[in-house]
Design goal:
mainly alpha; globular; 0% strand; single chain
């Protein structure tokens, strides 16, 4: 799986023939031969295609179908003015707090060698978090009898340490952004589910390539942090305004503000630079600038999630799916490693 990615991690140079798509359907590969032969590595000469794909994905995710109207443009101007006032200088007040204990727990969860006893002790010190873990362990996914799980040790036995780390990392972040509102169910939930999907993809890709899977999972969770922050603020502003939001307004504002807020949140939380450097590179890179293996893993994880969503929604055909993968240096075989149901 991801043989080319593994080669990238060794910083070896490929010939054009070695990186050409060899397993894509013959009819597609014949059409794509010229462009494929120019692809050198993931992201090289292709990030503009990825950015176009992301815009299509956000529009699809938020249900953007209606053409912008004068009313929606006026609404966007008002919200943009309010957002500018609210996050001037990208101040800390715009960013949800992440406690020192939560950051310490995240560090332990993403480390290779943290003892299980230390992780369980930290979770037990947060009754709400421990309760969530126990609740998940009692779900039909893990328990097949009527025996109720009442303590954390038993819960970990049921779900396993690997799954425990994912559950806790996800819970720490979800607490900051899940809102009890119509808008969250309509738009925000989809944004959060996308981040969770990217996290899962990033972990699988990283582990297959010899990287820290838990760290890749966390990076995937927070890669769209700015979108979630902006969405939460937009919900608050809409609540004050009392009007129905136009999906295109959400889409435009999320795209314009999210990257800067993601970077600022990582700085405010004082995350280690190696945790969010891949996100900065992923956000700001020009063609050929994906230097770190972790950045490539995030790039692919996000790309595959977006393409899968568009394909599942009928926004792109199977031919377009294969073509878009080829445009960014990947292949249908790599995609199906993560989404076997597309076979």
């Amino acid at each position: 799986m991801f043989a080319k990615l593994k080669s990238f991690f060794g910083f070896t140079k490929k010939t054009n023939d070695e990186i050409a798509l060899s397993k894509v359907d013959r009819s597609v590969s014949q059409v794509a031969t010229n462009e494929a032969s120019q692809t050198q590595e993931y992201g090289h000469q292709s990030l503009e295609h990825a950015r176009e794909l992301s815009l299509s994905f956000v529009s699809s995710l938020l249900g953007v179908r209606a053409v912008e109207t004068e009313q929606s443009k006026a609404q966007e101007d008002l919200l943009r003015e309010a957002l500018d006032a609210e996050i001037t200088g990208l101040s800390e007040r715009s960013i949800p707090k992440l406690s020192k204990s939560a950051l310490s727990l995240v560090s332990d969860l993403t480390s290779y060698d943290t003892p299980q006893s230390k992780i369980l002790t930290a979770i037990n010190e947060d009754p709400a978090l421990a309760g969530k873990v126990i609740s998940i362990a009692n779900s039909p996914l893990y328990i097949a009898s009527d025996t109720e799980i009442k303590d954390l040790d038993h819960a970990v036995t049921m779900i396993g340490l690997v799954r425990l780390k994912e559950v806790v990392l996800k819970s720490i972040m979800a607490d900051k952004f899940e809102l009890n509102s119509y808008y969250f169910e309509t738009f925000g939930k989809a944004l959060w589910e996308h981040s969770s999907e990217v996290a899962g993809n990033a972990k699988k890709i990283a582990e297959q390539s010899g990287l820290n899977g838990n760290q890749a999972y966390f990076i995937g969770l927070i890669h769209d942090l700015g979108k979630l922050i902006i969405f939460k603020k937009l919900v608050e502003l809409h609540s004050e305004e009392g009007s129905e939001p136009h999906p295109q307004v959400f889409s435009n504002l999320l795209s314009d503000y999210s990257a800067a807020l993601t970077r600022r949140a990582c700085e405010v939380w004082e995350l280690p630079i190696d945790w969010y450097q891949p996100i900065l590179e992923f956000q700001m890179a020009e063609p050929g600038d994906l230097k770190q293996p972790e950045s490539v893993a995030l790039f692919l994880a996000n790309l595959f999630a977006e393409i899968n969503a568009l394909f599942a929604a009928g926004e792109i055909t199977e031919f377009e799916l294969i073509w878009k993968l080829q445009e960014v240096g990947s292949s249908i075989e790599e995609f199906r490693e993560l989404y076997p149901e597309t076979n």
